[in-house]
């Protein structure tokens, strides 16, 4: 694809800058060829966001007598609520990033904002992200969420249980640890999401681990949270986050009604001054 070609060329350019002191670029003819490839190449497939039905199905399929399934469910809830990137909390096979979220990156807070030591005192959870693919300078960020009010879908409860599980292996293990030095693999969560999507009547091929962050962003968008809040909470440094949100039934249900109401509240620039009210009545 054109993106693959451009990625390879960027490495060549970087090598010249790093070792020879100058950059190289594409010939005009090559530029034209790449643009042609971009027009002919299909757009990259975007993963669909998880829905409440899919989340329920993931939970229903978990065996909570199994430590692995308890971690899987906790990871799903964390990914959804904190809009996490895959590398921040999951392993790629057996490999994990140095900035993967660990137990010491988590703090539980009481209603007074002080550290809480028991789950009945916990009102909120703060998670520090020490890096990500989009955080090129490693600045890190901390995000805090309070209890959701749900008995089964709550970031505070899920994170608490993950911490208790990880502490069985070491004092500062990865948050989604399944053993000492082992972390839940991304393909395990992806498989669970796909199976749940199929059971919910959706196409499993359009879902993956990215569906968790996309689902969280879409849920925020559907409830009217402004785009700046979504961007800041999701730690996006550009408007690229908008590709993660989707229009769903909740956001489109009243659009026609709102548009009609908006049209009534604003005078059109071509509306004749002093037009008779009878013409407006006929259109009501």
UniProtKB/TrEMBL annotation:
Coiled-coil residues: none
UniProt keywords, alphabetically: DNA recombination
Gene Ontology biological-process entries: DNA integration; DNA recombination
Secretion signal span: none
Location of the region described as Disordered in the Swiss-Prot/TrEMBL record: 260-284
Molecular function, one GO term: DNA binding
Taxonomic superkingdom: Eukaryota
Positions with biased composition (Polar residues): 274-284
Keyword Transcription annotated: no
Transcription recorded as keyword: no
InterPro entries on file: DNA_brk_join_enz, Integrase-like_cat_sf, Phage_Integrase-like_Recomb
Family matches, as PANTHER family: P CELL-TYPE AGGLUTINATION PROTEIN MAP4-LIKE-RELATED, PHAGE_INTEGRASE DOMAIN-CONTAINING PROTEIN
Protein name in the entry: Tyr recombinase domain-containing protein
Record organism: Phytophthora sojae (strain P6497)
């Amino acid at each position: 694809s054109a993106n693959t070609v451009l990625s390879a060329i960027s490495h060549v350019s970087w090598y010249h800058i790093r070792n020879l002191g100058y950059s190289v670029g594409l010939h005009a003819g090559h530029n034209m060829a790449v643009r042609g490839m971009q027009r002919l190449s299909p757009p990259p497939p975007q993963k669909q966001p998880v829905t409440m039905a899919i989340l329920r199905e993931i939970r229903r399929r978990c065996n909570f007598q199994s430590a692995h399934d308890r971690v899987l469910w906790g990871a799903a809830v964390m990914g959804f609520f904190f809009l996490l990137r895959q590398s921040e909390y999951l392993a790629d096979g057996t490999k994990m990033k140095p900035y993967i979220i660990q137990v010491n990156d988590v703090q539980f807070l009481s209603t007074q904002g002080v550290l809480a030591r028991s789950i009945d005192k916990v009102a909120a959870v703060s998670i520090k992200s020490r890096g990500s693919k989009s955080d090129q300078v490693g600045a890190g960020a901390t995000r805090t969420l309070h209890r959701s009010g749900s008995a089964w879908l709550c970031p505070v409860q899920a994170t608490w249980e993950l911490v208790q599980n990880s502490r069985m292996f070491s004092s500062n293990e990865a948050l989604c640890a399944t053993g000492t030095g082992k972390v839940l693999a991304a393909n395990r969560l992806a498989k669970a999401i796909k199976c749940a999507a199929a059971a919910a009547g959706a196409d499993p091929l359009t879902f993956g681990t990215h569906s968790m962050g996309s689902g969280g962003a879409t849920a925020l968008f559907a409830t009217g949270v402004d785009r700046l809040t979504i961007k800041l909470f999701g730690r996006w440094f550009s408007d690229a986050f908008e590709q993660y949100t989707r229009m769903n039934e909740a956001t489109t249900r009243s659009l026609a009604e709102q548009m009609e109401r908006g049209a009534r509240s604003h005078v059109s620039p071509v509306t004749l001054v002093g037009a008779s009210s009878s013409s407006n009545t006929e259109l009501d």
